[in-house]
Here is the input.
Amino acid sequence: MLWVPMVKFLFMVYNQNVFHPVKRIEKQDPSLIFEPQLNSENDLIWLKAKSDGPDGEPSWKPLTDKLDQFLKPYQYGNQYGPNVVPCNNGHVPGPGQVCSVDIRHLGMNCTKENNYGYDKGTPCVVIALENIVGWIPDVYETNRLPEEMPQYLKHTAMNGNPEKKMIWVSCDGKNPVDKENLGPFAYAPGPFFETYYFPYQNLKGYLSPLVMVQFLKPVKGVLINVECKAWANNIVHNQRDKQEIGRAHV
Here is the structure.
């Protein structure tokens, strides 16, 4: 058995930690949610890269199985129906239609064939927005970005196509030492959700847009607090409601 020093990721998002699509009319803004989660009660993710579990399978196999399970509806051939249409900024869904989600845009590294990076100690985490019926994002104009938005995200927003309206997404270490230990990471298809997927109307065939985050070179043997946020005028970052939603031991 090959043992690799562990990295502990403590993931944090704001408000709820509910993952499955839910119908919540009492909430005013959606929360970020993530997978893989093996236990919805304690949200603890255990991983040792290149090590075996008690049954001889890699210890990360339950995590990649959970990602496989979640992504199955997104696979080619599983998105079908007369109301499922491809969307872009020039073609938004009509009445009763929903947009398809092309998971090829989640990148080549974060795939089943590559074990979502878990065998190499570079885990991928998929994040989405909680589904709230009727919620319409009020996106930021690129000349009115909030002061507290990370600089790299501001740069991305200001240098993109101004016609494309995005809900922006950021992940980073919570504290300075976490930022240093976290190392580089990558978003796919990018740090955003396209707005043509909203509002969620509880229609058949609807799938939430996804962002895949891969941690590429975390420092091993330390606890790293990772904080993710979604950015729009009508998404509130409430420190009081923030919850720890998972530890990943790599």
About this structure: The chain has three helices and twelve strands. Residues 159 and 247 are 34 Å apart (CA to CA). The helical segments are 61-71, 151-158, 176-182.
